[in-house]
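queue> pop job 88
queue> type: inverse folding (structure -> sequence)
queue> payload:
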């Protein structure tokens, strides 16, 4: 479907932006889902803060626009690992080495089902070939540098060192009915978003498929060792409240993905005992590392011993809007969940907030998201970080609703993301009443909207805030 043309001109760059003109012109007052009035207009006399990198210099291209880096520099690649290969490829490689192909299958069971790379634990393999197999197929990829726990132990942030010293992070979160892992897909990032620590040093390199998958295997190992605690009563109650309202409490928490979580449950029925949901919202732009990310996704969904046997419906790929790759993803014939990090419906702001918008505009990205829905039948998520006085104006909620509704109803869900309050920074959270009004406006215009969960915030582990550093 072609993009809708907004009847209103794009806003001018000078602050303040227009207030809630449409509301002032007589639109019904915003109401929340309970039918209560949304409160007083909040746009009046509010400024328009422009995006700007704080404490670092955004690299610019020859035309003075934020530089984008799609290709990785020529650097040494990580060693090949079992998780880079299909089972057939592993079997063929074992045969080349003069080892029975069956041993490759046994080794795969150890890695994907028992989460081990330790030859001492592989007692079903002949002692003389164990070391050789492990050396050949299971080179160490991720070395744990640090882990931080929060949310009473129900959230863990891991910092990993890769074979070449590059650092990446993943964040593990246990909920009542699922365990979600937020994973990284690149070392650094070439998308140069001014609010994001990950992109500050550009793209170091793409992660290999096995480096991506190994984050999950290592997380499963930690869970199996009892290192991830249950969420506390307050979090369980909050999740239950959301569920009672029929709301999603995470990107991939639909009925289908809840079922995916149950599939990974223990027989005691106390919730999953391994990672059930994946979100590609750690370091890097996953669609800029398309081939390796898709190979990793296949390893996640392939049944053991080929892979981890996870449900594709529990896997969420999030992008800032690489349009050709979104269309390619739609044709993969995998029922994964798709999320578009939009953060602004108007190109004037989005050009500055998400530099890749200079390549593919907001309407093109929304069209590609709609194409994903039409091709796969899977509802897509729009991510929208609410930033004080930058993108949280009522007119933007209205423009967003207009653009989404112009393409149809029931195809999309908006997830506004509350940022951390950061005094003195332009990158700070919207005021609570502004957030509420933004959500209410979208809802009143018929757009399903859920404020996202904020787990992991105290350890800088919330998405978009990941920055690997030993210090
Ligand atoms: S927000 Fe995402 S796409 Fe943008 S620089 Fe950070 S990691 Fe890259």
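queue> result:
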């Amino acid at each position: 479907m072609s993009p809708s043309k907004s009847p209103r001109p794009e806003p001018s760059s000078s602050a303040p932006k227009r207030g809630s003109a449409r509301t002032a012109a007589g639109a019904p007052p915003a109401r929340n889902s309970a039918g209560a009035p949304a409160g007083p207009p909040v746009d009046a006399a509010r400024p328009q803060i422009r995006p700007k990198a704080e404490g670092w210099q955004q690299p610019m291209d020859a035309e003075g626009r934020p530089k984008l880096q799609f290709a990785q520099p020529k650097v040494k690649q990580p060693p090949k690992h079992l998780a880079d290969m299909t089972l057939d490829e592993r079997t063929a490689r074992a045969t080349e080495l003069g080892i029975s192909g069956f041993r490759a299958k046994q080794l795969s069971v150890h890695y994907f089902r028992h989460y081990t790379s330790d030859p001492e634990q592989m007692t079903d393999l002949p002692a003389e070939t164990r070391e050789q197999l492990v050396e050949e197929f299971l080179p160490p990829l991720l070395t744990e540098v640090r882990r931080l726990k929060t949310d009473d132990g129900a959230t863990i942030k891991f910092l990993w060192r890769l074979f070449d010293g590059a650092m990446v992070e993943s964040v593990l979160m246990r909920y009542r009915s699922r365990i979600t892992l937020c994973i990284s897909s690149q070392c650094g990032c070439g998308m140069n978003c001014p609010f994001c620590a990950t992109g500050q040093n550009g793209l170091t390199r793409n992660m290999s498929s096995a480096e991506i998958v190994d984050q999950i295997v290592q997380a499963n190992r930690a869970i199996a060792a009892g290192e991830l605690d249950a969420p506390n009563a307050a979090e369980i109650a909050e999740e239950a409240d959301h569920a009672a309202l029929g709301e999603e409490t995470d990107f991939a928490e639909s009925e289908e993905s809840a079922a995916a979580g149950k599939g990974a449950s223990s027989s005691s029925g106390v919730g999953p005992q391994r990672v059930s949901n994946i979100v590609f919202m750690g370091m890097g732009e996953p669609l800029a590392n398309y081939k390796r990310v898709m190979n990793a996704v296949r390893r996640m969904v392939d049944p053991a011993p080929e892979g981890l046997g996870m449900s594709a419906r529990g896997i969420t790929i999030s992008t800032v809007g690489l349009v050709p790759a979104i269309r390619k993803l739609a044709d993969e014939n995998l029922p994964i969940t798709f999320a578009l990090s939009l953060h602004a419906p108007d190109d004037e702001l989005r050009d500055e907030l998400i530099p890749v918008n200079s390549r593919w505009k907001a309407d093109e990205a929304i069209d590609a998201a709609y194409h994903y829905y039409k091709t796969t039948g899977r509802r897509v998520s729009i991510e929208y970080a609410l930033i004080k006085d930058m993108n949280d104006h009522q007119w933007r909620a209205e423009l967003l609703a207009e653009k989404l509704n112009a393409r149809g109803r029931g195809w999309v869900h908006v997830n506004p993301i509350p940022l951390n309050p950061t005094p003195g920074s332009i990158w700070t959270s919207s005021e609570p009443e502004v957030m509420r009004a933004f959500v209410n406006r979208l809802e009143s215009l018929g757009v399903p909207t859920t404020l996202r969960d904020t787990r992991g915030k105290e350890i800088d582990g919330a998405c978009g805030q990941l920055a690997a550093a030993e210090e």
